Amino acid sequence: MRRAIPGWELYERMIARMMADQIPTDYCVTPNARLTGRISQRSRQIDVLIDLRHDTDNSRRIIVDAKKRSRKIDVKDVEAFRGLMDDVAATHGYLVCPNGYTKAAERRAQSSVSIRLVPLDRLADFDPSTWPKCEAPKCKNGLVFWDGYPELTLRAKALSGPNEGRLVDLSYIHYVGKCDRCGRFHVKCLTCGEVLAPPETDESDSGHQCRCQLPWFWLASIEQDENGIQSAELHAVLLTLPEVKVITADRRALR
Hints:
CATH topology of the largest domain: Trna Endonuclease, Chain: A, domain 1
Shape: elongated
Order of helices and strands: HEEEHEHEEEEEEEEE
Mean pLDDT: 91
Radius of gyration: 20 Å
Number of helices: 3
């Protein structure tokens, strides 16, 4: 039996889902992220973190603070949020609330902070308890948040039909995402339905293939940008001879 999800957590996950559905596909979304502040040197909790998906680049970071409150957002809320943005090097931020904001808060937000209203009645149609359970053995109550849908293509010779004897492209869709608690990457093949969970901390890991046994596998690793900031990355490794092609399918910042 799954635990009852608190209202504030439901609101945060709903905002994460909305952001993932609305932003461009070259960005990825991590709910309930943790980053070490560059100024405070403390672990900072981020309701929703948005980073570039395909590159080890943390220079266009967006953070979201989902405030499930009965009162309006005020200027102190905006100032605290701007301080968090500076600490984790975010270039833009979204303050999301259900009950409005003051004029002073709007003026203080200016161009780097956007305030959005998302009413609580949107929660009526939102049920994250249907999300898959995290595959990590030691993770308790974690649910998989899908935030990407890569399409991998295999070129093969058609054996029948109007294109018989010709090379055709066959597309295979996957879901990629991460646990909303421990951050473990997950991949779901929509062809066979198998779910994989490659760990990024196992240097001996040689990759994971689903039951389809197609010429690619999934591998997670820890990478570092030019400023020394580390990220965990999920890669699709395509065995497209004579060369191997690597696609970064998902990312999440490390503490």
